[in-house]
Amino acid sequence: MSAPLARLHQQLPQLVLRTDDDSRQHYGLDWTRYYQPAPLAVALPATVAEVQGIVRWAREHRVALVPSGGRTGLSGGAVAASGELVVSFERMNRIGDFDRVARTVQCEAGVVTAALQQYASGKGLYYPVDFASSGSSQLGGNIATNAGGIKVIRYGMTREWVAGLSVVTGTGELLELNRGLAKNNTGYDFRHLFIGSEGTLGFVVGACMKLTLPPPPQAVLLLALPALADVMRVFEVFREGVSLSAYEFFSDQALGHVLARGQLAAPFEVRAPFYVLLELDDPMHSGDDSALKLFERCLEQGWVLDGVLSQSAQQAQQLWAYRESISESITPYTPYKNDIAVTISRVPAFIASLDALLAANYPDFEVIWYGHIGDGNLHINVLKPPALALAAFRDACEQVNEQVFALVRDFGGSMSAEHGVGLLKRDYLPVSRSAQEIEMMQGIKKVFDPDGIMNPGKLLP
Ligand code: S2G
Ligand code: ZN
C-alpha cells in the first residue's frame, strides 16, 4: 500500500479501502467502453464524516477523486484512468425520515433508483424518474448527472425531484442545501449548481427526494408510421388530446435488431419505417376514448399505418420491451453512441440531415435512431460493420462525431441531452456553451474545488 494510502487508512481506520486489481477494474469504469481503468484504489465510505476525511486527505496528498455510483454513465463521467481514488457510495444506501405531509424522504447517495421507486410505492406514492438502468443506477449519480429517462415529458428531469441536497465540497465542507423546503428565496440556490455538475464541484452524499401521487393505470399505444414528419404530427395530435407520460421513437432498423434476438415477435404484420410508443392514462380504466378517436384520426390522415393499444399491464410491458431492449440489442456491434437534443419541431429535419450526411460519407455504416423524441432527445447509434476493424471504425467515428456536433451546433441544439458531458464529450462542450460561460463554470469550480481534485478532466475542458 502506498504511503498516502497508508496515511488515509491511519486517519480513517474504519474506512473500507480496496487496492486489489479486480476492485480497481470494476469500480474504475462506467458503461463507456473506451477507457482502460487505472485508479489508485477504491474507498467505500459508510458515513459523511468518512467522505469529508477522504477529501481532506486528497487535498493534503493532491490525489484526484472520482465519485462512483451505479457506474451506468455513458459519457465516461465515472471513469478513473489516471491514478485517482474512486469513492464508491454503495455502502451509503439508507432511506428514511419519510415525511407523509411533505411527501419527501431522505436518501443517502448510494440508494439504487429502483429501491426508491419501490419505497415510494410501499408508501402509496410514486417516484417518477425512470430509465432502463434504474435497477443499478444510484441517486447520487442520478443527481450528479441530472438523469432524465422515459417520463420527462410529464415529470421532468431528476432536478425537479430534489427538495434538499447534502454535498461535501472539494474543500471538505458539508453543505445542507435547501433542506427540503418548498419555498426558500435566500440567494443563489447551490442545490441547482450541484445537480448536473458530474462530481466536479463535490460529492452528493444525500438528498431529500420529493415523491408524488401515483398516476392512474397507464396503457401503451405502439404506432407504426410511414414518415419522419408524421412522428411530430402524431405527437401534436396526441399531446393536445390526452395526458402523455412518454413519447418514445425508434426506427425500423432498431426494431430489426430487437427482433433478431428472437425474444419478441414483430408487433405488426407489416414493418414500417418508424414507430412511436406512447404511454398514457389507460382508456379502459378512465373510460375516456379520446386516444382511440385520435388514433382513428391519424389513421384517416395517413400519418399512422397501424397501431396496438395494450389491454393489460403485462401487454404494456411487452410493448415497452420493443423500445427498452434496443440498447442491449445493438451492443454487440460496439456502436458509436451519441445523445443530443434539438428543438422538438426540428427533430425530423435534424434526423434527415444527419442521415443524408452519414449515407454520403459512410454508406456501409448502419445508423440506428431511437430516443425520447417528446423531449427532442435523440440517441444516435452507428454500428460497426462486421468486416471493419474496431480501431478503423473508431477512427472513422471521430469524423462522425465532428459531423454530428457540427449539425447540432447548426440546429442550435444540445451536445448532451441526458447522458452528461463526462470525459467523452468534454472537448465538445463549446458546441453548446460559449467561451464566457465555460470560463464562468471554471470560476465556479474554483470556489467549490480550489485544488481541482474533484473529478478532474470531466465536463470542463
Ligand atoms: C435510452 C440508454 C442507453 C443508450 O435507451 O434511453 O438513454 O443506449 C438511453 O443510449
Ligand atoms: Zn435515453
From TrEMBL:
Named cofactor requirement(s): FAD
InterPro entries in alphabetical order: FAD-bd_oxidored_4_C, FAD-bd_PCMH, FAD-bd_PCMH-like_sf, FAD-bd_PCMH_sub2, FAD-linked_Oxase-like_C, FAD-oxidored/transferase_4, Oxid_FAD_bind_N, Vanillyl_alc_oxidase_C-sub2
Pfam families according to UniProt: FAD-oxidase_C, FAD_binding_4
PROSITE patterns: FAD_PCMH (PS51387)
Keywords: FAD, Flavoprotein, Oxidoreductase
Top-level taxon in the UniProt lineage: Bacteria
Signal peptide, first to last residue: none
Residues annotated as domain FAD-binding PCMH-type: 35-214
Family per similarity comment: Belongs to the FAD-binding oxidoreductase/transferase type 4 family.
Protein name per Swiss-Prot or TrEMBL: FAD-binding oxidoreductase
